[in-house]
Write a structure and sequence with these properties.
84% helix, 3 helices, 180 residues, single chain, mainly alpha
Amino acid sequence: GPMAFAGANMAISAASTIAGFVGQQQAYSANRKAANLNFANKTDALNAQNTQLSELESEDHLSNAIKSAQTYGRIASTGAQLGLGGSSLTTMMGAAQGNVARGQAIEDLNVANRRQNIVASQTGAELERQSQINSMPKPNLLTLGLGLGKDAMSSAGLYGQLGGKFPMNPTSGTPDLGIT
């Protein structure tokens, strides 16, 4: 009769609501995993850039040290051939050292700027990860409970529309929907 039909309707609605909740949980979990994987890949790439930058910086310092030594050697050799005195050689070497130091300072500034860009990119990757995770609401049991309650009420309404009468709960004086 109407009670069995309404009960079957309630069971189907509840199963659908629970399946929807499980689907939301799976989608939320998959989204979170994708966000974390994307973040890990970006972080790995940025760490590799940082390592390459450190190696480049070391090579630049070594290259500049070699250039300095070669420059000083040429100055000393030329000065000796020309019979220049110590103060002239000191002045020339000081000028050469200033040029090398200026070049190194520019390279160091360039490296520092590139490092700042890497840090900014790492921060951006973390914000992107959080944004992706937050873009999908986390399913909660309260929503599931409200959905099941709505299913029960619509099934009760269906039972009433089909001409059924609810047995009354003698304690509370309310209709007993058979839901515990």
